[in-house]
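Hello forum,

I keep getting stuck at the same step: I have a sequence, I want structure tokens, and every attempt I make locally crashes halfway through. Rather than fight my setup again tonight, could one of you with a working pipeline run this one for me? It's a single chain of 383 residues.
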Amino acid sequence: MSSLLSMTGREAQAAEWSAEPSLAVKGEYNSNLTLSRIPGEVWGRWVSPSVRFAGSTERLEVSGKAAGDFVTYYGDQNRSLTNGFFPVVARYSTERDVFTLDGSFTRDNTLRTELQQTGVVLGFTQRNLWSMSPSWTRTVTDKLSFQLGYQFLNATYENGRSLGLFDYGVNGGSLGLSYKVTERDDVQLTGSYTKLDVTDAGLKSNNAGGSLSITHAFSETTTVKAFGGPRFLDQTQTIGGISLSSNQLVWTFGGSLRTKWEDAWASLDGGQEVNVSGLGVLVKTNRLGATVSKDLTETLTVSFAGQVFQIQALPVQGGGVQIAETQLISATPAVTWKLNQWWVLEASYAYVDRRVDVTNEFFHGNSAFLKLTYNMQKLSIAR
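Reply #2:
Ran it on my machine without issues. Output:
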């Protein structure tokens, strides 16, 4: 008991806590808010307060963010939205063990984070997503370690049933081994199991798979990573007392290349993944993305980000579920101007092109943003 009190006392003496508040206001124009044939030309006003926080002791590190968006749209669609983002990461370390808890609550619309992950354009509504991923990493030797992890997801949609969207829950676990081959090369082998439950759609899915990941650092500024492995999908869907089942084998793979220079950085990443969709069906997403950023001066930065998605539904055989869109392309140039120590002005433009497979129709949207952010003085306490 005395040793525990002694350790706790030392950690308390070394504690450091900080908070970084900010407030952003943004004006938006969007020619097609819902990326569909429904009239969606709008002007938007955003007010976004946020605070980043962090704390650490000798063994414990905590970081997170509390942020919100108060959004009002005018034009073809008049509506007000409130978004919230609350990610938190806690990390506790001993000589050989690292315990991590990564959790978050996100409330935003389906055409933001869900679109960026899956590439699927859903009905425009608010989604609440709870996420929690605890993990334990054990160092066996200087080069070998293993990791045990668990994942929980729960998504609910506002007025989802009227838009053909279904709430879902995900539980899963993973076990991995990591080996440091050289100072620049790491290899990781991971096995995983995931259980998906979409109650209102009558869908249950048990997915098992494995993945081999290789990371190589060409230098301190350039790193490449590649991974791949099989996923076995066991799905059952019950509709009107009739159950349909199917088994599928899907290969998932991907990679990333990241490099930076003195005044610029660039990244290229992509691959094929299986994602959960609010449509009550698993989807196979092929994605390729690239980002480049360049500092023109100490205060002026230009950047460009682009993505291409190819989407295919993975329904239960004979279930008849289809996803119309098969391709989505987006391109976003931006300019950031650091006015002074506290104020940052950002202007950006985004073009999105959506191709509908069944009707052979094309929809596109143009949007422009002007954002002004005030970063308040960092608050810190050390003891």
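The helical segments are 2-13, 113-118. If your local run keeps crashing, start a new thread with the error log.
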